[in-house]
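User: Fold this; tokens only.

Assistant: Input:
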Amino acid sequence: MFKSEYLNRVYAEVERRDAGEPEFLQAVREVFESLELVVDKHPEWEQAGLLERFVEPERVLEFRVPWVDDEGRTRVNRGFRVQYNSAIGPYKGGLRFHPSVNLSIMKFLGFEQVLKNSLTTLPMGGGKGGSDFDPKGKSDAEVMRFCQSFMTELYRHIGQFTDVPAGDIGVGAREVGFLFGQYKRIVDRFDGGVITGKGLSFGGSLARTQATGYGLCYFSAEALKYLRNDSYAGKTVIVSGSGNVAQYCAEKVTQLGGRVVAMSDSKGYVYDPNGIDLPKLFDIKQKRRARISVYADEVPGSRYVEGCKNIWNVKCDIAHPCASQNEMDAEGAKALIDNGCIAVFEGANMPLTPEAIALVQGAGLLYSPGKASNAGGVATSGLEMSQNSMRLSWSFDEVDEKLHGIMQSIYKACYDASVECGKPGDLMVGANVAGFLKVAEAMMAQGENLRSDFVTFP
């Protein structure tokens, strides 16, 4: 499997312990494949049991979330918080409310978040959380009651110097507001830095809403410029998904001269050869919370196609998968390659299957993993934390400029690490190695491998 006996031994133990967690195993295997290029240079890692500690979360919380629906019936969902690694800062990562949420997905997201946060250069560890609660089709009152119940358990485990949640799939401005309100009510103080993605009127940051989508394009523009001497100008682009990340990715692509011709939701996709009408899309998704199929009903010349995975059959130059994990399989990747696509830049977390990644890279397309190219969201969450701590607010342009600089730095770190590993331009190798080395250095320095009989307690 791996050339390194150490990596094989650690991964075999992960497989044994976490056999029923396919997403988590997939994420660990991908990172280990990159670390194989550097692990032999660091024999001290094996002596310190570094990888054994790295793959194991520091803490996993699972709890019940009872709430009452509008008919007065009691419902019960599961809540999770995986506090994965705090070597370089407090746990930081979003909350996801979606029926697919389970422990495997929470652990894979937390594991990825550790490396992603490391790449931002900001002092943030990695974590992730959420629930199998589905906010779709629920009233505002039901969502509020669920969020209040969820936070009634979670509040005891978080804090601006301990663990700072944010939004993710299914957790937008509405949910963050309800969560923060309940936290403030319970602890009886205004700890603005305890959760990010807040509204502007109570400590949120300008540009946070746009940050993940914009950051994706800033990173991609760097890769196009330095690896292909190219740009978005005149390019035809597909953006899967139609949530926050996809919407603002499409907006920035358009600003940079590209033309987004297809977007999707969980049921299907719309194709508009004239370019997606963004004001119309924003109205449908942000205000009406409607299905993307409505777009085809209201925009002449566009059409709706059932089956969200079929979006990869649309001819394009650049693809931005921004929906969810494993949304592009080998068949989707092959369709992109056959249609002349030149680049795939991930906006979601692990949206390509291993088979799809192998095909994309094997065909010579530019490719970036989400832990690098979608790090703009958590980077701007870090900037929100800074503003909260300093009791001030930066302008949109100030935050956007800082975000742009961070994404340029992430690209450079990934590229430099790829060169050092003998794989120049392999941004997946670069992201995994650059992110890991910083965390590894911090873990080694903090001596977490001390035997218990060496530790004295007051």
